[in-house]
Amino acid sequence: MDEKSGYNEDKELLKKLSINVPRKDSFLKRDLDARAHSEAYRLKFHLPNSEKLDGTSDATLWTPYNKHHVWGTLYLSQNFVCFDSRVANLVTLVIPLREVNLVEKVESQNIGSDLAMLITNKNASSHLFSNLKDREFVMRKISELLSRIKVNLTTSISSADSNLESSHHDEANNWNPQPALMTLFEFPNPTPPTIESEKESNWEKHFYIYGKGITMYRTVELAKIVLTGIPNGLRRELWPIFSGAMTDMSMAEPGLYRSLVNQAFSKSSTANDEIERDLHRSLPEHPAFQSEIGICALRRVLRAYACRNPQIGYCQAMNIVASVLLLFCTEEESFWLLAAVCEQMLPDYYNSRVVGALVDQGVLDDLTRTHLPELHAKLDDLGMIRMISLSWFLTIFLSVMHYESAVLVVDCFFYDGAKVIFQLALAILENNQDALLMCKDEGEAMQLLTNYLEGVTNDEISDNLISLHRDHEVIVKSISIQNLLYESYSKYGSLTASGIERMRLRHRLRVVQSLEDSVSRNVVRSVASFGFFTQDELQDLLALVREEQLCLRGSQPARIANIDPSTPHYEMFKVDFELFQSLFTGLSPWGHCSHAETLAARLFRLMDRDEDGFLNFRELVGALGMTSSADLTQRLKLLYTLHLPPLLSPSEIESPQQESDAEVAAEATDFFDSFEQQASCLGYDFMNSATSPDSAEGPSWRKMSVSSLHSLVLPSNPSRLHSKAMPCMAQPYFISLWKTLYDMFHAEPEDEETYHSIASIGTLLLQLGDVNKKFLGSRQASVDSLHSPSLKVETPSSPRFVSPPNLVLGEEDDNGNSSVNMESSESSGSNYALALPASPSTDEDEKTPNNNTRKKSDSPPQWSITLDQFLASALTGAPIVSFFERRINLIETIERFRKRRYVRLQSWPPEPTAASSPERKV
Q1: pTM
Q2: Band of the pLDDT at 807, cuts 50, 70, 90?
Q3: How many helices and strands (H and E) does the chain possess?
Q4: Where is the composition biased (Low complexity) (predicted)?
């Protein structure tokens, strides 16, 4: 369950072999409880986000360093066996199943060692667990998990080998990953060799007693030695272990990092451009990033991560974190460490909306209120929490302290998680509490904290023992990082990772709701210019779209794409045709007829300008607004447009969709029979005169035509010029249009006057089309007879085609009604000529008049009407005007739609529950 994809049931829970689990709870409750337990499990042991807790059991762990049996809890998951003592922080153990070589029973008569199980690792180390009440079941479960691990590893290695073979032929694969940059460049202020060797010696002693690698015993002694700082040479080994990045790296396909780098460099993206702007701002004081070696390595790491996780891409501050990682780790290790920071340790920090950082602002505010109430009141007045937390947390203090000091913060952060940055922030605020209470404004307070943090020194570096220098100014030492970290643990070490997560959850709901409200306001503001709906109606429509998306996400992908911040807000919400059809039939008055499905398909295609199969929210508002709230002329114009090719194809006319309602078809039979009889009496071949482009067939013509129709029908183009540029309509398309119009009125109360009005207007338009045909034929014949060799050059003022008398809308009177006028051929002929479907002329078409090669004269004139004629005739019918002038109340319509949806959802059959599935009861 997450913000993007919604809730999906964990079907594996139904198949899981388990004991001692009550059956009374519903499957949904079991599923949600299992997710919560898995989240706490991952947080406790710093495991990947994909890890799911399989089960737990009480047990004791034999600790060889003090020869004791420690009571605690044994945890099992797909890839790990973990142990945590009952006494907090006494001992913790993480054993990856990929490292397990053997699991066996141990029968012993010693007190405390009964029901024992011995796990032997591939490095020859072993761990003894005793007092396992369900030892047989636990061992069988571990064997089952081990068998899956071996299968997965075999599949992963074979697929990785094939990927590596193909990557060897990649021309872009001409770079070499860099080792830790500390091996290539000297530190400006290196730690004295004596101090460094002493620290390494202490760590070696610790490894000898408590073990080394990921399976070491993690005790309070480990926390103490981390607090003193990890030696430079061991950070490459310990950072991935503590953070969980080593697990991600070991479970990934070999060669994945190289593949991601090559992919990232083979395409351009916004993230790549942003990375380039920030490369030279990353730790510029270090020699490694004054060289192309360091810059290129940083570029590859950042681009590879943006390619791996496009939902995050690149965010400012990632470059600073990655640059410090590259100093102590190889490129690939830095890449996986960066992934662990962004995805597990500081989730949702590094995205366009920095949701995680905003959430932690609220957490820090609560902690300050609890531990420093007097200072909290002052900071609240100054609005300081928001300003300090972003810069401190996003870079893990790397941007506000000298990196020689801040790197010790990173040591503790990887070991203890995000709680470290809250402990440190509280300690900094407490140390400056008296001075902050005296500050008069936020500027003075920010400068105070800035000077304090710049004065934080590392006691291990001799140059920092006296003073620091910045732009030839002396910076007074404020405190050593060792003392600051010690104070943070001694005063605020009671903070726990689980407590921080609970506070995050509480504030996340508030932050996400606030961001969503802001996004909604921006989206509504961006589409309000249409004028179709009020602000409240648009808000309600947007809420409905999001509700419908959530209902459909159970079986379909999310429809909220990862939008670049520079794109319009309405692009954040898109609907596919399935959802659009549901909204069209439920909200639009045009959706109540039996042709609603075909109308929805044509309207969707008309509005989908980029042909990506989705409508953004602006296009959706335009589609619904033009059918339910636009002015009368606009709606009639849209109806006309939806029955033009290529939106209405000749195949739809030849094989019309069968009416689902037999009664509708029966009532309409006589009406449309009379139409077709009149057409045949006028000598028109119904099926052979469909409007189609003779000289430009294919998808490109259709795409251009739809795009042109879109631009002509938009309400932003209301001029008479656009109206007269609309293509003429041939008779088959007009017959289809009139059938649709009749079908729309079938949903209205029966009225003889309405049907009579529709029939009379339809007859009038048929006659107008016949007049157009005859007039155009006579004018064309006259032009041909006057054509002679002396008229080789056609003057601009002489139109190639002359239109028949044309019915157009006249000026509106004081009541807003349009009059119907006749225009002469001189005033409208050229526009009519542009609207006719015709092949482009060539010189050969007109250069030999004696041989009668003027091809335009060869094709007989076709029956057609113009948009102006359609509008002028339709406006004479009072029922038509009344229907298309009616404006819906969108809020009430949406409320009725929601009620129907509720009834529909309630009528669905229930999902199968856990009780109906075969499972061993736990």
Answers
A1: 0.70
A2: very low
A3: 38, 18
A4: 816-831
